[in-house]
Each structure stands twice: as structure tokens, then as C-alpha cells.
Amino acid sequence: MQNLEDADTHKMTSTQASQVEDWPIFKDDDIEHIMESQDQAEVDQIKANLEQCRMTLQDLGYAEFTFEDFITSYVEFRLTTRPHQVEINAAACLVVMFFRFVTSGEIQKRSEFFEPFIQGLTSASTQQFCKSAVEPMGEESYHVHITTLSDARGVPIRVLYLDRSSCDNGTVNVNHHDFLPVDRPSANNGGAEAVNPFITLLYLTGHYDILHWLGGMLLGLKLNMPFTCSFQE
Amino acid sequence: MSGPSPSSRKGLSKIACNRLQKELVEWQVNPPVGFKHKATDNLQRWVIEVNGAPGTLYANETYQLQVDFPEHYPMEAPQVIFIPPAPLHPHIYSNGHICLDILYDSWSPAMTVSSICISILSMLSSSTVKQRPADNDRYVKNCRNGRSPKETRWWFHDDKV
């Protein structure tokens, strides 16, 4: 972790995101990135990545019909042009669930690696953790979830957070932590080929806002999610 | 008494319909042990016969589960209740409502009707006493207006049964 030296030059605004919204973190920016690049090699890589995800879930014993609709929704969402706002919200929930499946599958596939991190959070087994804290909609995204998703999708992410420990002199530092997928060579040698995360999130207690670069400014946008899972009187 | 009728709610979305047809086919090929789906032409409401597992307090007893699917199944949990008379169990109210986390907060689209059935049978099988929840009368009275169990704010605190 390091100070974001040029934070002052970024005008940052953000609006509060709902709990469910913590998850569609790759949606907008990832798609924009792909559409801009229109790179056949990248499209092929996405297809291979989806196939990998399908095999992981099958190997773990998930019935195909429980996840195939979410893979389809994800592909449709990426390949079709932007639908109306209402449809975006409905589709975004399906995409969020797709990412929950990806995360759950990856954690269970590499359970030996993730076990120590999960034991720090709960006494549950890796599998129980996935059933209770990854797969249900509305469950929060912790460090483990982001690391996993970044790895599984091969997408680097930057999370900005405010450090209030230096508040006494009236300033708030903006720090950041980069999540770099493990299979990217530059993540390990940290040198020659610097990874530039194109997804930036702002962490505020309990949720993340998606920050977008727009005309040289970093902006937070709000998406309204249709069905959050709260059953209150 | 069997909860709100599905006809009073929205019909199934395309994804829900598609998913339920696949679940039904899977059920016919590979039904969970101890359960029988009662065939109807209503995809949005399933009625399932439950047989208590041998060697448990509910052996040789038969109950009926009613499963109602919302428009956005499986993103939203189905409503699952016992059609009274409901089994005597510390987590099952006399109006058929079931206190089980996966039916509410902990539901995920990775679950299926079949996996719900297995969880319910497991909940019955691990019971050591046939009795109603302590707050049964108060809860059932509050539900008289036909309130769905999904509108209840459940508090899950007992992981033994």
C-alpha cells in the first residue's frame, strides 16, 4: 500500500452505492475496455476464461442449470449494446450473480490457498464460507472476494480508501491498494511492465463506489439495483 | 390456508420459467430421496410430499410442502411452507412457516428446490423433540392476515437442529 501521490490532482466525487452494488465491479469498465479495444485475441481469452469457469463449477459438483443462465446473461450483456436503464439494472443483478459463481468456484478450487484467509474471518470451512458469504446476493465483498475475482478474471483493480489517521492536521490522505491477478507476470516481477488497473473503486465503510475517468476527472456513478434481498417487516 | 396465491402475484420471468423447467426435468430424472413432486400443470407452485426419514422422530409420517416461485426466481428465494398440519418441530410454526436461513437471507441462486428439500429433511431428522417454537402462538396470530414468511424478520440463532 502506498500513498496516492497525485490524488490531489484528481477531483473525486462519489455517490453512495447500495450493498448489492459492491459486486458489479468489473461490469461497466471491463466492458468499455473491451469494446474500445475490440481485440479478437481478448475476446478469445474471455471465451476461454468462461469455459474455464464452467469446468471449475462442474468439477465442484454444481448442477449446470444453476449457473448456465448466468454465464449466458453475462455474455449477452457484454456483446449487446446498452439496453435501457431498467434492463441494465435487471441484467446487472444477473452479472453480479455470475461473478459470485466465479468467485465461489475459484475459492473452492484453490481452497488450500484461501483457507488461512477464510479462517481469519470465520470458523466455517471454505465450502461453507462460499455457501454463506459468497453465493447469496447481498453478502459483502471482503479482501478475499476481490483478490479471488481479480485473479479469476485476470483483471487488475485499484481500491482507493481514505486514511483518517492523519486527520489531526485537517487533511485526509487518499491511499490505494492494487489487486493484481497472480498469473500476470508483471504482478510478480513488479517491474518492467507496470500494470495500470483500469478499474478504480472507492472504499467507504461497508461498500465500494465505482469510479470512472471522465474528462480527466474520477467520478462515482450510481446504479439503482432492483431487487436487494432484504426481508423486513 | 396456503399463503398468497401465485395468481395474485406477477408471473414468472423468462429466466425463471426456463430454470424451473430444467429443475423439473432434473427432479424427474433424479428426485431427492423421501420426496415426491405432485404433478400439476402449475410451474409457479409446486406441491411436494415429504416422508419422514426412517429411524427419526418423523418416520412413517407424511407432510406436504408448498413451494411458490417469485417472478425473479432464482435471484429471489421461493416461498416454502408446510401445508398444515405441519410437523411438530422447534423451527416449524403451526401455520406451516419454517425458520430456516436458506429460505430467506442465505438463499442463493446456486441452490435448487431439490437442495432445499434435502435441507428441510435434514432439519427434521436432527430434531430430538417434537414441539412447536416457543413463540408459536404469538407468531401465528401475527400472520393471520395472510402474511408471507418472507415478510418476517427471522432471527437465526440455533444451529443445532
Automatic annotation (TrEMBL), chain A:
Protein known as: Ubiquitinyl hydrolase 1
Lineage of producing organism: Eukaryota, Viridiplantae, Streptophyta, Embryophyta, Tracheophyta
TrEMBL record, chain B:
Pfam families linked to this entry: UQ_con (PF00179)
Transferase among keywords: yes
Enzyme class: transferase
EC numbers, comma separated: 2.3.2.23
Record-annotated active site: C99 (glycyl thioester intermediate)
InterPro entries: Ub_conjugating_enzyme, UBC, UBQ-conjugating_AS, UBQ-conjugating_enzyme/RWD
GO terms, molecular function: ATP binding; ubiquitin conjugating enzyme activity
Keyword tags: ATP-binding, Nucleotide-binding, Transferase, Ubl conjugation pathway
All residue ranges annotated as the UBC core domain in the record: 15-161
Lineage top rank: taxon: Eukaryota
Role, per record: Accepts the ubiquitin from the E1 complex and catalyzes its covalent attachment to other proteins.
Family (UniProt): Belongs to the ubiquitin-conjugating enzyme family.
PANTHER family: UBIQUITIN-CONJUGATING ENZYME E2 (PTHR24067)
Protein name: E2 ubiquitin-conjugating enzyme
Organism expressing this protein natively: Cinchona calisaya
